[in-house]
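Researcher: Please generate the 3D structure of the following complex. Treat every line as part of one assembly.
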Amino acid sequence: MIADDGDDGASRQLSPEETRRRVDASLRRRYRAERRFRYYGLCSVCLGVIFLVILFGTIIGNGYSAFRQGFVQLDIHFDADVIDPDGGRDPDVLSVADYSLLVKAALRELVPEVTSRGEKRELNNLVSAGAVFSLRETVMADPGILGRKRSLWLPLNSEVDLWLKAKLSGTDGDGISGRFSARQLGWLERLLADDRIELQFNTAFFTNGDSREPELAGVWGATKGSFFMLLVTLLLSFPLGVAAAIYLEEFARRSWWVDVVEVNINNLAAVPSIVFGLLGLAVFINFFGLPRSAPLVGGLVLTLMTLPVVIIASRAAIKAVPPSVREAALGIGASQMQMVFHHVLPLALPGMLTGAIIGMARALGESAPLLMIGMVAFIVDVPSGPMSPSTALPVQIYLWADSPERAFVARTSAAIMVLLAFLLVMNATAVWLRSRFERRW
Amino acid sequence: MRLPTLLLILAAMLIAAYFLGRQRALSLARPAGGIRSLHSLPKYYGYYAALGALLPGVALLLMWAAFSDSLITARVVQSLPDTLRNQPEAQLGLTLNDIRNLAAGQMFDETRSAEFAVAADLYNSLREASRKILSGLVIALSFGGFALAWFQLRPQFRARNRVESAVRFMLILASLLAIVTTIGILLSVSFEALRFFRQVPVSEFLFGLSWSPQTAIRADQVGSSGAFGAVPLFVGTLLISGIALLVAVPIGLMIAIYLSEYARPALRRIVKPVLEVLAGIPTVVYGYFAALTVAPMIRLAGQQLGLDVASEAALGAGLVMGIMIIPFVSSLSDDAINAVPQAMRDGSFALGATRSETIKRVVLPAALPGIVGGVLLAASRAIGETMIVVMAAGLSANLSFNPLESVTTVTVQIVTLLVGDQEFDSPKTLAAFALGLMLFIVTLILNIVALQVVRRYREQYE
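Model: Done. Output below.
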């Protein structure tokens, strides 16, 4: 054999033992390298998984506490003289009355020894400024309650809430106690011992809009904003994307022009999202004069962003339909349009839907372009439609992450958990759709 | 009439047109010998009538939406007294904004002069009139279109062909939207960027070493000129993306190699989707993670080692961004590695090479173009990434390559320049568009090169 010549030449100078020794040594070295390489690979995989675990661990660890909120039980006397001195039960009068007086009176009743002005202020600060809203709602819903006494659970101030959570979990919670005076701590301990203070499920977090007071801030406004935005995105990007995909796959003949469109779609899918925000700002807001902060504009921008994703997924789904289906349809006399709409499209639809849902999930998590079109404004009201100002879930997370109040840390993480839950549901739906309807030809 | 009402009416007319058209076809066919005498199925006559009702109205609606606002604004500007009308463009924009707000009833500023109230009233009445005219015209046009279609219907009318070519036309329009988007991005961004370059020379923007976009409110303020040298931003962007790639490329590549060459199918089935979760997490979550967890950790570690670490160090943002693009690199590398024909591996094994030698000497060189393409795409994503750097990187433009210092990036500056109150003509706002243009061009070049490389490589083995 020709290839053996060199080896023969080499082995002539080496004894067989020496050769074996060398081969063994090099084999050992090579196997070690092999194990090492394999070990690097395994380490990388583990690193990836560890990153994921740390990420989720941090967020859940920070955020789970925000789903519970500290409440204090107060025996509120709905004093008609305070709320409605005229006795007219006029809704306009009832809605502007000073309900904080009721809270203050109830607190005084619980802690009767408070007399000085400073002490009173310290006492009143323990209860959330939002307590008055729930009192007002109670009265507005049932004016007959005036003059009677009722025991109500009212939210605590966010700092007290943090203290309570730290206290109940047996930690110091970053020295939160240091932020209260000894008097306040005494009152709180006493109320806690009397079972007047407890943690309850934080409904406000799921039903309220944004607020400067952490204990009143909720994700409902942002969720609704995101919903309207995704609705606009879905209604526009799915039909347009499918139509474009149909044209490119079924009708367009190969030409330089189709190549340009194709390259362009692939490029658009990789353009940074913030550039779409610039487009939205320049075109939709400055040129067309659409309102800032409206989910409609957000939806339009996200449509342009998700369109390439939908087109690419839809084209893949159409490509997966075998040519025999098309030929059979054409063979029995269907026009090309009938063939596409009656036969190819229904078969490709699950794949297209999967792509659309994945595109929507991406749009839901997107925040950079929304910053450009003014959806970062501080908006308390829950939006009522696609034209009313609102924010979106990821933007709400960004806003809260920037807030200085400590209680917003937990709420940011909780909002992230809500966002991730939505994404999980969407992606799970996509996976389910794929496994349920996908046909292998 | 509000827009939703109008759309509802239009929809109702559409449905009515369909049934009327279909009915008409059937009744035309009856004397001529039944449904067989029709050229197309009856429903196509219905579709044709419906299209007749739909297209002219929608076309008008779109045109109106595009132009009515600017026409009304021009009319309002004309009505303004000379003192207000002859302001510089920027001031005029602010005035118009105030008028719009006043018209929407959002602002009750008593100090505003009566002229504003008059203009706002005019604005409102013009809008009201425009809305009325629009509703009337759209309904009339739809009706006219339907009538036209209706009288065209004959048994031998080629309704299916007409409808199909209309549908085809709409499909073409939809496929053009992607092109229109690209052109829209280019035009809108470069238009504003050109206005910026009229005030600040291109050479200063591209090569200037200092960036402080705060322009003065008053002309005589000290240090008010504002500096627009973007080199510190480019350096900051490169630094953070570089760190991200240093993290993501080795880890992502090794993950791809391990999963495609070593891992048992069961492990692969579990680990792959788990890692893809990393790709599905919104970037704002990564930003929060970087700012709240990673940055303090790095700071603490730095203090232990006696290093001076900025609280918004480039390292933190870069690390987290690297984690974010790991799945991106690994899935693209995975594709490239899987595209290498098995015969090449078998050949290498037959020569006595170990698995790792095969991978290093045969598979990776063969897959290199695909991997490089993937890395380029990852780089383009890292450069354009916004939320992580907005939340975890700094704002001050330091010209530094030190990963422990705080640097700022192009995207951070775009966001800070454009979020919040803005006058639309100051170089400060326009600078954001110039930066956006740079970003768009750079990522576009990276993407085109990467996609070309990946595509050519794929053809090589197919």
